[in-house]
Amino acid sequence: MPEVSQQQTFEEWEAAVAAAYVPLVVTPVRAGEFRARIVQSRFDGIDVSMVTASGQHLSRIPRLIHEPEEAILFASVTTHGHGWLEQDGRVGELADGGLTLHVSSRPFSAHFEQSWGVVAVQVPLAEVVGASGVPADRMPTAVRFPPEGAAGIVGRFFCGLAQLQYTAPDQAAELAKHGTGLLASVVQLAAGDLPRDEPA
User: Which residues are in the Transcription regulator HTH AraC- type ligand binding domain (predicted)?
Assistant: First the structure.
């Protein structure tokens, strides 16, 4: 078999990330062997995927913001590894089963120094805004919600949903109908804790 350069491997991974989620700039954190995998389930109105990969830096840069046109809300539950997510002037830790939100309509960056894994959920941002009553610019992005509490329960629901797709896809599809509502509840509970911009 012909050898594949690390650059080519990363270009293929970057294309896979764009196809599964949104276009991002992906860069390695070190030279050497790189491994990555996405297993994605598409339900009605919500996508749930399991991602495992070597260390990398991912950026949603301004020139990519309008791809796709429909804004997406992402919820990530870290299953192993440690990293950080930056958006809207905040930096949230990615670790220990915590749940973190970010949106595709504004720049963000995520970084993992070592191997990592997440369960990633994506829903149309407009649906969460409508269900929660929280404006898009008030989303609690880049805030780590710990495994304890309401957000932790929702995070475990999505992790279970990702596994259930293997054994009982019909049941998973039925439960997935409640995913947007659960994320809207997390947003409602968390948005009130964010500081509001004071008028000039």
Answer: 13-189
Alpha carbon distance 55, 189 (integer Å): 32
The answer to whether position 153 is within a domain reads: yes
pLDDT, tens digit, for every residue of 150-182? Answer: 999 999 999 999 999 999 999 999 999 999 999
196 inside domain: no
Torsion angle, alpha carbons of 114, 118, 5, 113, to 10:
-20
Among 20-34, 55-69, 118-132, which range has the highest average pLDDT?
A: 118-132
Tell me how far apart the 2 most distant CA atoms of the chain are, in Å.
Answer: 63
Span 135-153, pLDDT tens digits: 999 999 999 999 999 999 9
CATH number at residue 150: 2.60.120.10
Which domain does 12 fall in, by range?
Answer: 6-191
Residue 39 CA to residue 48 CA, distance in Å, equals 9
Taking the C-alpha atoms of 121, 132, 85 and 57 in order, what is their torsion angle to the nearest 10 degrees?
Answer: 40
Domain count across the chain: 1
In a domain, 123, yes or no: yes
Q: Are 85 and 94 in contact (CB under 8 A)?
A: yes
Q: What is the pTM of this model?
A: 0.90
